[in-house]
Q: What sequence folds into this?
């Protein structure tokens, strides 16, 4: 069951405290763009509407600003619930129609898991190739030029030294996910 | 005061000027920073969105490495700060996560005991005695009108200062002699990675912040996070084109402005790095 699944996850147990006041939706800077507002998502979770929730574009519009979390009168950290919903959607291979943020987060995590450090140029390139490659010149080249002119682009990709230690750790962390 | 320093990935690439000004400032204030040996990315908000266990594991490797030599860790990036504090808190709150993470770390020969504390550099500097800071001010920023921008992930969910109306940066800037303008958007979201994935949504959020600062008469925005700096600084031309505006507000780090007030050479503070140049606005202080 969807609700039980979430209640069992660290951070998910707070869901039942919701009294549907809507403070979360009113505090959210992007709720006006969402197909389902945070308040509504909680009700849908309680109603067991797993497919609708995990397929919603709303979960990919959360910018993790935590405004909902600090204002909730029942102490629900909905930002944490959003992380859980996003990770569940990814685990189940669900890509909503507007899935750019999902691909972005996954690309980010792949680079970090592989090299230990973020490489901003690689992130943008890989992300564009997986979503819409025309973004490379429409959206990202103008930004890249501005940053390059001011020496704000790293010329050599950052890596960590203890590769064996880090790989062993990542292997273990990713295994836990599958189990 | 000796700290394990966690710069985070941005401070080694697009926010090198933040790193540079932090080192110059801490040197003057006697805050010793020792970069954590072989630190890795904190995972920001991407890792918890993809895989909750991966997010905690990434952070704990850093904390384990930090506490090998230090009791205190300091970072100057809001996203890093939140990732580190969040992981610490979750390990304390959920014993099942603690056990799982200990098992993960063991596979790499690491151990996390939970001794190290995590602070943002703003917190460290703002908690110094006012006299210690005032003593260093060689070139007061008298007459400079600044809007203090905190972003989200230092003040929310609950870690430092007030989640809706933080004041610590305002106080620091007033100490330099600058005039702090009232700023309703001081802790509103900069849109973070939405600037990459949902640019139209992001630009509206950024526009609202910039316009508020401008309407309050600010000559520049001072911030404490590399992500916020990038979003507020780098898209102003696109936002102007889209919304038919003439925004031109430099966005600099608090360490750069404090450094200037302390009489440091602007070349050692990286003030040539912002996309919207602060040179004109700061001309009488350079």
A:
């Amino acid at each position: 069951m969807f609700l039980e699944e979430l209640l069992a996850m660290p951070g998910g147990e707070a869901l039942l405290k919701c009294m549907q006041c809507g403070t979360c939706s009113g505090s959210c800077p992007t709720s006006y763009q969402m197909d389902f507002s945070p308040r509504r998502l909680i009700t849908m979770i309680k109603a067991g509407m797993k497919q609708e929730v995990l397929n919603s574009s709303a979960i990919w519009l959360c910018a993790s600003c935590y405004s909902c979390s600090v204002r909730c009168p029942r102490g629900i950290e909905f930002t944490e619930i959003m992380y859980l919903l996003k990770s569940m959607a990814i685990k189940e291979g669900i890509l909503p129609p507007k899935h750019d943020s999902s691909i972005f987060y996954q690309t980010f995590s792949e680079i970090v898991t592989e090299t230990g450090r973020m490489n901003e140029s690689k992130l943008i390139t890989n992300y564009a190739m997986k979503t819409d490659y025309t973004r490379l010149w429409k959206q990202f080249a103008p930004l890249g030029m501005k940053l390059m002119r001011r020496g704000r682009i790293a010329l050599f990709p950052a890596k960590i030294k203890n590769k064996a230690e880090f790989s062993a750790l990542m292997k273990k962390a990713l295994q836990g996910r599958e189990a | 005061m000796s700290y394990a320093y966690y710069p985070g990935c941005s401070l080694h690439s697009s926010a090198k000027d933040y790193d540079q000004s932090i080192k110059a400032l801490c040197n003057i204030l006697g805050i010793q920073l020792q970069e954590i040996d072989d630190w890795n990315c904190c995972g920001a908000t991407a890792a918890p969105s993809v895989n909750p266990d991966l997010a905690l594991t990434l952070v704990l490797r850093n904390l384990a490495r930090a506490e090998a030599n230090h009791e205190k860790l300091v970072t100057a990036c809001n996203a890093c700060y939140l990732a580190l504090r969040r992981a610490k808190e979750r390990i304390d709150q959920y014993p099942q996560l603690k056990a799982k993470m200990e098992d993960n770390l063991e596979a790499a020969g690491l151990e996390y005991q939970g001794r190290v504390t995590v602070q943002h550099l703003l917190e460290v500097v703002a908690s110094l005695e006012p006299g210690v800071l005032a003593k260093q001010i060689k070139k007061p920023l008298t007459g400079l009108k600044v809007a203090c921008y905190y972003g989200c992930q230092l003040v929310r969910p609950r870690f430092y200062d007030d989640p809706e109306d933080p004041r610590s940066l305002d106080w620091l800037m007033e100490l330099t002699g600058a005039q702090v303008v009232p700023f309703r958007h001081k802790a509103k979201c900069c849109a973070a990675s939405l600037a990459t994935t949902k640019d139209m949504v992001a630009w509206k959020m950024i526009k609202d912040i910039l316009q508020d600062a401008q309407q309050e008469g600010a000559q520049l925005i001072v911030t404490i996070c590399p992500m916020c700096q990038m979003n507020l600084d780098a898209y102003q031309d696109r936002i102007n084109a889209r919304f038919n505006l003439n925004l031109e507000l430099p966005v600099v780090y608090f360490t750069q402005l404090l450094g200037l007030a302390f009489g440091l050479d602007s070349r050692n503070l990286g003030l040539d790095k912002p996309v919207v140049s602060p040179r004109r606005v700061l001309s009488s202080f350079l």
Chain A touches chain B through 65 residues (CB under 8 Å). Chain A has ten helices and no strands. Residues 2-91 of chain A form a domain with the Fumarate Reductase Iron-sulfur Protein; Chain B, domain 2 fold (CATH 1.10.1060.10). The radius of gyration of chain A is 19 Å.
